[in-house]
Amino acid sequence: MIRRLSIVIALVSFGLVFASLVAGYAERQSPRPLAEGYIRLVPQELGAANVVTGILLTYRAFDTLGEVAVLFMVAASVGLVLGGERPPRGVRSEVRPDAARPSSEIVQTGTQILVPLISIFAAYIIMNGHLTAGGGFQGGAVIASGVLLVLLAYPQYQPDLEFLGITESVAGALFVLAGIAGLIVADGFLDNRILPLGQFGAFFSAGAIPVLSALLGIKVGCELSVILERFRP
Amino acid sequence: MISRIVLTTGLLLVLIGLWGMLTHRNILRIIIGFSLMGTGTHIVIVAIGYVANGTAPIIDRALSVSEATSRAVDPVPSALAVTAIVIGMAVTAVMLAYAIRLYECRKTLSIDAFTESKW
Fold first, then answer.
1. Between A225 and which of A1, A95, A147, A184 could a Cys-Cys bridge form, CB atoms 3.0 to 4.6 Å apart?
2. Calpha distance A146→A133 (Å, rounded)
3. CB-CB: which of B14, B52, B100 is closest to A82?
């Protein structure tokens, strides 16, 4: 009873705080000076049409690198928590001998048709991050969704964890090397102007942003696939 | 106007997630509550970056460079939301991994079975 009362009090007080936030909120009529600066500088200096990608992969690319490190840490810690010796799970499958039966033909055929399409879509999202909405993180998540579909349709399928690990490490190392190249050739760590900016709005433009985006997509896709694989019983 | 609706929706989601976390005893439901709360904060972040009559900060035929500074929404909260989504997914993955381990340890997902660190 006291517990329930304290929950109600906590929720009501949070609700009051939020209500005052909403009441005091006024829609901005013009962008903040910082936003205005970014919107002006990204097309001008970096040659990227998508301002958000320009921020993520050049001005704030160091944060993106840290975020990738967080993802790597999560993959490692999920492996640590779920790895090692697990209690045997054979009891259940003995009761239900059909527990390990293969998925139906409809599911398998659907997977065979959908997985190539998902992969192409992921590549499209990754490679057009500097032109339209998209980028490495989003495309990597789409790749992982394709891997999840395969894992669900073929429970016996074993992804090559070693290959995924090596690919991921190489992509991460190349990302850092591109950053260091920016330090030497251009103006700073992870500067995108190590490659020519090209024509604004063209596919090959915005300097190193498409390259960094591709590396990020590969890395995120591999890491999320490893995490998904770990969750398999 | 539209951003106020979005802001309210986000804050309501935060409240619903908090309610779910506080009232439910099943660890999976607590994790779902946590994710709802995270999603609510993402929506709030995006809402406060809105500029009246603004559009996505992507320069193309519909938005020329000259009018971008006056018609585009704030790109910084959008970039922040991408970061927050990825980190939220990472936190959820770790929580689910621990939930699996806790279930293997006690054969139950009720949080009442774990009293060691309760005070």
1. A147
2. 20
3. B100
Angle at CA of residue A198, ends A195 and A204, nearest 5°:
80
Q: What is the pLDDT of residues A106-143, one digit of tens each?
A: 888 999 999 999 999 999 998 887 788 888 888 888 99
Please tell me the distance from the alpha carbon of residue A120 to that of residue A143, in angstroms, as a whole number: 9
Output b/e per residue, A177-216; b: 16+ Cβ within 10 A. Answer: ebbebbeeebeeebbbbbbebeeebeeebbbbbbbbbbbb
What domains are there in chain B, each with its CATH number? Answer: 2-113 (1.10.287.3510)
Report CA-CA distances (Å) from A226 to A40, A164, A174, A220.
39, 7, 20, 10
Q: What is the rounded CA–CA span in Å between residue A147 and residue A153?
A: 10
Chain A: give the shortest CA distance to residue B36, in Å.
15
Q: Classify the complex by whether its ipTM is higher than 0.85, answering yes or no.
A: no
What part of B 87-106 touches A (C-beta under 8 Å)? 87, 89-90, 93-94, 96-98, 100-101, 104
- Cβ-Cβ contacts under 8 Å for A112 (sequence gap 6 or more): none
- How does pLDDT run across B59-118, given as a tens digit for each residue? 877 777 777 777 788 888 888 888 888 888 889 999 999 998 888 888 888 888 888 877
- How far is the C-alpha of B79 from the C-alpha of A27, rounded, in Å? 20
Contact A11 B19 (CB under 8 A): yes
Classify burial at A84, counting beta carbons within 10 Å of its beta carbon; exposed 0-12, middle 13-18, buried 19 or more.
exposed
* Secondary structure of residue B63 in the 3-state scheme: strand
The pair of structure tokens assigned to A41 is 């500088």
Name the DSSP letter for residue B111. G
| The token pair that represents A207 in the structure block | 């300097």
